[in-house]
Galactokinase (Segatella oulorum F0390), 386 residues
Amino acid sequence: MDIEKVRSRFIKHFDGQTGNIYMSPGRINLIGEHTDYNGGYVFPGAVDKGIMAEIRPNGTNTIMLYSIDLKDRVEFSVNDPKGPRATWARYIYGVVREMLDRGIAIAGFNAAFYGDVPLGAGMSSSAALESCFAFALNDLFGNNQLSKWDLALIGQATEHKYIGVNCGIMDQFASVFGQEGKLMRLDCQSREFEYFPFHPKGYKLVLLNSKVKHELVGSPYNDRRKSCEHVVEVIAKKHPDCNIKTLRDCNFDQLESVKAELNEEDFKRARYVLGEKERVLAVCDALERDDYATVGQKMFETHEGLSKDYDVSCEELDYLNDIAKECGIAGSRIMGGGFGGCTINLVEDSLYDTFIQTACEKFAQKYGHAPEVIPIVIGQGSHKVC
Ligand code: GLA
């Protein structure tokens, strides 16, 4: 990312002094979609793109923010009970409130920031923004007393309480904990995780951004979560001795046993989640054997499930998936929440150029623009730059 870009704007839009610069990344997810809020596994990694912010305490009680990308300025008082209207500033307001609630004595500061992770592409630009400010404010006002998990949970609470998206923990976790060249398998129930070095020989990971903007606020995302919770309630009632709290605790037989009590939509959604839970584990096994053919196969299966059962795809993403199959690449699927954004593709080196060219041409013919090609570099989690 471009340190000069943030520094020059910080100097220009505030009092000419400099502050500390922090960066937090967006993320990819190899497999394990819509499993985080169901107590399942996810397999994300941070990317080399994200949010970079320069911040300096200003000795007052006013927080002064400048969004370089939007050329927009917002100010609010640290004790403001309502907070700003602009959505971008509400993310930062939420982080500040959550940190105050955890006893961090945040006072006024100036901040300018920009991002290079495409917005609404399913790469967690909002988690990057939350974790960038959580990390920075913990450093500037909290003596780094909050743990990485605290920082991730602050971001998630911001989404729930100040934005209205009842997201899981994957995005904030990946943004805070990421390490260069490594994916992470997180058990969202126990919060245990492992780093997996990811350097697939003979393959590349690449994102194709359909540019269909996905917007989780007010989207059916929260409905998917409700469906899953409803199914859990029904199964738990039928099997009271099984201590069922999330879909993680359920199996296919239990789901079948309540089929008649569920509507078809809820049944299919739960069926997808149970399948995805198993696919993440199968992918971990396959990675241990360097068996990328299986990894890719599972990605295709996930796409099918997300499209047909979980119903979070769109025509453009299905089309990109069809092209991936036609080109014979190892694997491809929708990445992130869905409803637009990117596909993540696992591509043999020998097929890479043809795949990219074919996807760009065919997609452009049908939708009037080529997808954005984003080669994946697995980068570092939240950190202080200087
Ligand atoms: C969004 C949410 C995550 C997760 C994914 C789907 O990115 O923020 O918590 O649920 O969708 O896997």
Remarks:
- The CA atoms of residues 38 and 154 lie 19 Å apart.
- The chain has eleven helices and 13 strands.
- Residues 3-198+379-384 form a domain with the Ribosomal Protein S5; domain 2 fold (CATH 3.30.230.10).
- Residues 33-34, 36-37, 124, 167-168, 170-171, 336-337 surround alpha-D-galactopyranose (CB under 6 Å).
